[in-house]
Every structure is written in C-alpha cells, then in structure tokens.
Design brief:
The structure is a homodimer of 481-residue chains.
Chain A (H helix, E strand, L loop, with lengths): L4 H12 L4 E2 L3 H5 L6 H8 L10 E3 L4 H13 L4 E4 L17 E4 L6 E5 L4 E5 L4 H10 L2 E2 L12 H6 L7 H4 L2 H4 E7 L5 E4 L12 H4 L8 E8 L1 E2 L3 E9 L2 H14 L5 E5 L1 H7 L9 E9 L1 H17 L3 E4 L1 H9 L4 H8 L3 E10 H18 L3 E8 L2 E2 L2 E10 L5 H21 L15 H8 L3 H11 L22
Parallel strand pairs in A: 2-4, 3-4
Antiparallel strand pairs in A: 1-2, 5-6, 6-10, 7-11, 8-9, 8-10, 12-14, 12-15, 13-14, 13-17, 16-19, 17-19, 18-19
Chain lengths: 481, 481
C-alpha cells in the first residue's frame, strides 16, 4: 500500500462523498466475511473476528466505480466486490484486511424494461427478490429463484454462476444474461451489448459469468424475462430409492421434457421436510410444470406416466405447495452455526451414470468415517439431459475449538470433493469456488487450469481483484484430514 | 521465418511422415482460400490465384498436432487451422503465404458414444454429416444441421459459432458442446471435461467457441446428442408480409414454444423456391415441430392457432418437405461465382422490435443504391424469445475486373453492416467474423473489444494463430464505397 491509510480514505471520500465510505462499525465488520459457515462457526466457538477491511465504499454509479477502481489500482490496493454477501463459499471474504470493499448495495436501480424483446436492465446491486416483485407487478417473471433469492444481488448471481430452483425450465444464470457492463481493475468500463445470439468471436459474457470478483466489478446486467406462465401443475410422488428417482428423472429429461421443478429428496431429507407423507425409507419427487396451457397438459400427462411406470406413487400437489412455501427458510442454519454446530451445503454434479454412485458413496463414507457427523442428506434439483446435481446438507458437532471445527469441516468436504472427482463429476454445480473449493480446483480443471490462469492474467495482471478467491495460489494444499 | 523453408518442411515430415506434408499440387492451392465469395469471384475475372502456404500438414492425432504446433511456435511460423473449408467469411484464408496450414481432415474418428448421458466424443476433423449418419444408425441425432452440413467439420463448427437449421429447438453449437480438447500455440494440450453444468469459474469452453483458429487448434469435441424424435409435424403458411410473419414468430417464441424450424422467407425468396404455392407478394412461413408425441400435438395446435390468428393461411406440409429436400443445394452458388457473378449471404440478428426495420431498410437501400445488384432477398430462420436473425442472399453483376468486383461487393456489405449496427443489431448471427467483417468488429464490440484483444494476448501472445482473422489490426479501415 503506497498511500497511507488515512489519506486513501480521504481520497475515496472526495470521490464519492464522506457518507459513502464506511471505516468503522457494523458495516466494515460485516463485509469482512460472507455466509461461509467455516469462519462463522469458528468465530462462534472463540476464534477472533476477522479484521475489517480498510473501508467499505458504496458507489451509486458506474462512473463512481470507475474512479474508485482507478484510484485503488494506482495505489495497488486489493479490491473486494461485495454484493448481498450470501455466498457460502467465502468468495466475498477478504483474504487481507489491507483491502477495500466495493459494496454494490446502493446501485440497485432498474434501468429499463424492454417488453418487445423480453429483457430488463438493472444495476448490479439490485436484490433478485426486488427485481422479481417489480416484474410480477408488470406481468413478467425473472425465472431465476436461487435459495438466496432474498439475500443475493443480481451482480453476485452473475459472478458466481448461480442456478435457480426453476432452472430445469428457465435455465441457469448464463442462459438469462443477455448483456452486461463491468469495470476493469484500471477503471476502464466495458459494455457487452445484448443480442438474440451472435457469432462475433468468443462470447465475452462468459468472462464475467463465474469470475467471482477476480477480474473486475460487474455494474449492470441485462436479463431475459418471461411472461407470467398461463398454467401451472404440481404433483409429488413417493419413490422407493434415490436410484429409482434418478432413473425417472433421467428418462423424462432425455425424452425432451423440461419441468420447471424436478426435485428428488433422499429418504432423510424427505422424512425431515414431509413428515408423515411417505412411508419410512421412501424418497419424494416434487414436480412442477408451467407454461402455456397446452404445454402443461402434455407435459404433466407425460411426466405422470413416466413416473408411475418407473415406480412412483402419486401423492398429490400438497408436498410441492409445502416446499414452495418454505423453500427459502434458512433461519435454522443461522441458529445452528451461532451455536458452534457446523451446518453446510455442498453441491456437485455428474452424468446420470455416476450421480447415484456419488450419492451412495458420499453418504455411506461420511456417516462411517466422520464421528462428529450429526446428519447428512441430499436432494437432486437441477436436471439436464446429460446429468444432474446433488445438493448435500450436513450437520456436524465438533469440539468447541476453532481447530477442531476446521478439522471436522474439511474431513467432510474432502470426502465429497474426492468422491465426486473420482467419479468424473464436477465439484460445484452452482455455489462457485470461492475459498472453500480452492484446494480441488486444479484437480477439477486439469490441463485447462492454464486457461483460467491466462484469463486472470489478461484481466487483472496486477492480481488486485479479490485475491485468494477462485484461483489457487502457489501455496495451496489439500486439507489434511 | 527463422528456419529455411526446405528444412522446415523436412522437420515437419519427420514429425508426421512425408506423405502427410503437402507442398505442391491441388491441396496447398485449395487450402490457400476457403469459400469466401470475394476472392473466388475476383479470381474468376482474372485476379491471380493466391500463393499457396509453405505446406499443408495433415496430423492424425492430438500428439502430432502438439508436436507440429510446438515446432512452428519455436520457428515463429503463422499457423492456419483448416477444417472443411466451408467458411464463407475468409476465416480460413491465409493472410500470408509464409504460413503452415494444419488440415484436420485426417482426424475424423468417432471416439466414444455415451448412451447414458447422451454424448458423443469425436475428433475435430469429422464431417458433421458423417457424425449424423453414424448417430442415425444407432437411434440418435446430432440436432445440428447447418447448410454446410456436408462440407463442415465439427471443429470448424465450434470455432465459428455455428447455428443449425433446427437451432430453435436444439440450440446453437454453444448449447451442444459439452467438452473439448485443444492445442495451444506452444503445443500445450488442454482438455475441458464435460459436465451437465458447473460453477467452477468462467466457462472455458467459450474461449474456443468463436475463436476462429486464432487461439489454437481444436482437436476433439464432446457433443450432446438426442434420441430420434418420436413424432414430427410440418406445416407451411402464406403470410402477407415479413412484418406480419415476424410478429407471428415473436408471439409463439415469447409464449414459450420452440418449433425445431421456424423459417420465414420473404416474397422474393418464396417466389423463387416455392413457385406457384403462394399469391404474388406473399411470404411463406415453414414450421416443423418434433419431439415426444404429446409435445408435438400440443405445440402444433398452438402454432396453428397463433399463425392463423395472426393472418397466416395454411398451405399444408408440402412446402416444408420441399425445403427439407433441397435445403443444402448450393450448386447454383458455385456456378455463378465461377462466372464472375457475386453471390453471397450475410446473416445478422436483432431484437424483435428492430429486425423488421433492418430487413426493410437493407432491401430498399441496396436495391436503390447499388446499380450492379441483380437480386436481394432474405429469410429469418433462427428464433429466440429476444429476437431473430435475417439471412440475406444477394447477387450482383460487376464489370469483369477484380477491382470492380471488390467495389460492388463492399458497397453491398457496407450497407448491411451499417444498417444493422444503426438499429442496435449484431453483425453476425452465425457465420462468424473471418476477414469479411473485420472492418466492423470494433463498432460491433464497442468498449468490449478490449476483452477480445486481452483474450488473444492471453492465448496467443506471439500472434501466430490465423493472423488477420477475427481481430482487427492497426491498419483496418472501412471499405470506401
């Protein structure tokens, strides 16, 4: 840091106003971490709070982001772009307190609605739930409903390659982003214009989708929107096992159906969330089809036939309604972590021929090999003709000591990561790499790691953007467990 | 070139065998150009044939590509990756004879079929039509049918961001590529593994999709496949104008329907291709729906209703059958260009609110302002909820002189490019940039041009890969017309 701390803060204040530079109190303290459970649980059992960043800056416009970035670049200060802070992988957690957090929260305007072409353009700091509510009032939907819906901002969803609960029909975030604007570390503003489709070189949106704040700051996003669907059908089925349920989903996906929701919960998760609805040991499959009336009729009939032929027992719409109502409740999560109990989620994906084996091996081995485990269960909730994801949730009760928390934490994560890689799966479906997956990113990417490194070098040659996230440093080792 | 020509050829021969290094005759002569009409017509009216490259090398394996690339990199020799040679934009035309062409044509093996996950892995030099035939015998389809189907190789389709005639249902090439392997200029081999979906940083496949041979050589591709659809419905409709037809397509796309084919031909194209089927001045809309039986029934009923409500008059299936049978006939094209007549195609795309204006303005202005024009017509054939493409075909008869050919050629191209940009459209839907669109790429990309330049610098810092394609050099000017 070539500028003194105080003079840097004064320089930032002169750029955006004193009231938009936070140097003490709750805001810098909160922006020092995100929703990654590991540090949260460690703090709960006595680890020191991480030191706050130099300051948190809250720009209102792209021009302000640009002047901030260019000042910080000149002074070689690390920059952490910060959205809603709902990242559960440590992606927005500063790796050094000698950094400045750019908080996008004041850049939350809806800039334009393009009804003819079904697009909306927003500033990156808008909450996804606010966008959805605004669209709903006008007869549209966003089609993007991650569990972090109320907590996540649009720019963060782009930066982490988010997937929503209705992705099987509407696509994941990369299928929804039409154009965007971002600020490079030097302050240069780049805009990628929307087009229905183009062939003018590589699709430059993909530099930003999954960049996790390591290339620059996303300031504006143009997203697809959809008319409110005319019709909706919901139905739940009991299935005897995960393997049977996965086989059913594989069949309807490969035949060409695209239900908005196809969610298979294992027996443990089903028993917790749908008490008394199924028989012991059964899994539940939640289906939701929506769209034009004729489409929903055809799809629901086909799904019903495929599921019942495959061994599913109809349970009616109620379990799907229950899930819709409670799907984003995460209060329990915060209560447990505050008590020193590790509760975390790990999502991976693989082809249909491997996903069942990954599920079985993870659950069996974690249960057998991690004595501190309290519970582990999973669901599959994003389907493709080529495979699906698994979303594991686990709880573990380590001794009340930060080192023990870390040991237990990694002992579970390591197993899920290694088992997934062994079966040819991918270590993240939609949460991103952040800091938690850094130890396995080299194994994940293999020889293509050089492409990611070259991208980083091309976009941020000075290594100032969100250091320690996404890209492994030279000293990265796998946790010893 | 640091090595003498002869010793370079001997070194290449020692790497791959003498019989795989072509130094004279038809092969080097043919690999000096691709299917770009401009040089072809110029040659037809007396321009000299372009000099052949140093040699054409035909590797059989990725390892051979790697050793070739690493030799050429050491010697600083420009490299032109060459697939089927069907590019109509000059993308595979060497900008200097002091280059070596790597012809992928001998790397045409099908490596594996993954029935469980509906994927096939092939070497990049396989013809798309051969892949389709092989899949058909096994009950699958590729879903990718560009007009260059018989001429194009898989690697070239990836490198140019191809779109097929059934893209509205099956997606364009970026929706079909699951994984790939490529060789960097240094000879380093990178592999991107397939996954149903992942969130492990930026999607690295997109570095290669649209790279047009300027970053390295694509050697292997894993593609989605589809089961042969159970049902197919075809129907044609007469519509009174392009605007009415575009409005109809906008409506069914935005309501959520995805016919495999939705092809709207303007009155001139309709009169040429469907003689006697419609009344004078009418356009034809060709629709094809395929998939599971219940889906096709629902979609065809909805489409029929939307089209007839919108002013379409049913013509039965015959015009669609005729189109299916003759859709890839391009003999006429070769005959005309050999006679010194310019026949070329230009595809652009834009939002629904601008596409009709682009169509009208292009056709009116080119007819009025280019006296050498013989004919211009267009169709729209790749639909999205956000807009569609226009595919212009034009014929022009310049004086039999290479300079006059160039002047007339650019006078038409300039108008289409400028009108598209003025209306906020994109200058290429699926043919790519090549050399023909280089003068407008800076206007197309605007501030995001720096991202493309940074990518190039990251992937090919010595600028050896396919120089003169995709990226504008410092001396690029718009043609004076």
């Amino acid at each position: 840091m070539s500028m003194e701390r105080e003079s840097l803060i004064r320089a930032l204040q002169s750029l955006v106003g004193k009231e938009r530079v936070y140097t003490e109190g709750i805001i810098p303290a909160k922006r020092a971490i995100d929703t990654w459970p590991l540090p949260t649980v460690q703090i709960a059992v006595g680890a020191p709070e991480p030191p706050p960043p130099i300051c948190v800056v809250r720009p209102r416009t792209t021009e302000e982001v640009s002047t901030i970035m260019s000042l910080l670049h000149r002074e070689r200060i690390p920059v952490i772009p910060y959205g809603g802070g709902s990242n559960v992988c440590g992606g927005a957690k500063a790796s050094t307190p000698d950094s400045v957090v750019i908080d996008l929260g004041s850049m939350n305007r809806i800039l334009s609605l393009d009804k003819a072409n079904l697009m909306v353009t927003v500033q990156a700091g808008l909450y996804q739930s606010q966008l959805e509510a605004w669209l709903n009032e006008r007869g549209y939907i966003s089609g993007h409903y991650p569990q972090s819906f109320d907590l996540a901002q649009v720019g963060g969803l782009v930066a982490t390659r988010s997937a929503g609960q209705f992705s099987t029909k509407y696509g994941c975030i990369e299928d929804l982003v039409m154009g965007l604007e971002a600020v490079l570390p030097t302050g240069e503003v780049v805009r990628i214009k929307p087009a229905p489709r183009k062939s003018t070189g590589p699709d430059l949106r993909h530099i930003w989708l999954g960049s996790e704040g390591t290339f620059g700051v996303i300031t504006e996003v143009t997203l697809k929107i959809f008319p409110k669907p005319a019709q909706r059908w919901l139905h739940a089925y009991a299935v005897p096992s995960m393997d049977v349920g996965l086989g059913i989903m594989q069949r309807f996906m490969q035949e060409g159906w695209r239900p908005a929701v196809a969610r298979l919960r294992d027996a443990v998760e089903t028993a917790r969330s749908h008490k008394g609805v199924v028989q012991e040991g059964e899994c539940i499959l939640l289906l939701l089809s929506e769209g034009p009336a004729g489409y929903v009729k055809a799809e629901s009939e086909a799904l019903h036939q495929i599921v019942t032929e495959g061994g599913g027992r109809p349970l009616g719409p109620k379990p799907v309604e229950d899930w819709l109502e409670h799907r984003n409740d995460v209060q329990e999560f915060y209560q447990y972590t505050a008590m020193g109990v590790i509760v975390d989620t790990v999502e991976v994906a693989a082809g249909w021929d491997q996903i069942g084996a990954i599920y079985t091996e993870v659950v069996q081995r974690v249960r057998k090999e991690v004595p501190e485990l309290v519970v582990i269960f999973a669901h599959s909730s994003h389907c493709y003709p080529q495979g699906t994801n698994l979303y594991f949730t686990f709880g573990a009760q380590p001794p009340r000591d930060p080192k023990a928390v870390e040991r237990v934490y990694w002992s579970i994560w390591s197993r899920i990561m290694e088992i997934t890689l062994t079966h040819g799966g991918t270590i993240s479906h939609h949460h991103g790499v952040g800091k938690v997956r850094i130890p396995w990113i080299a194994d994940e990417l293999g020889s293509s790691l050089t492409l990611l490194r070259r991208l980083k070098q091309a976009m941020d040659p000075d290594g100032l953007m969100n250091p320690g996230t996404l890209l492994p440093g030279p000293d990265v080792k796998k946790p010893q467990t």
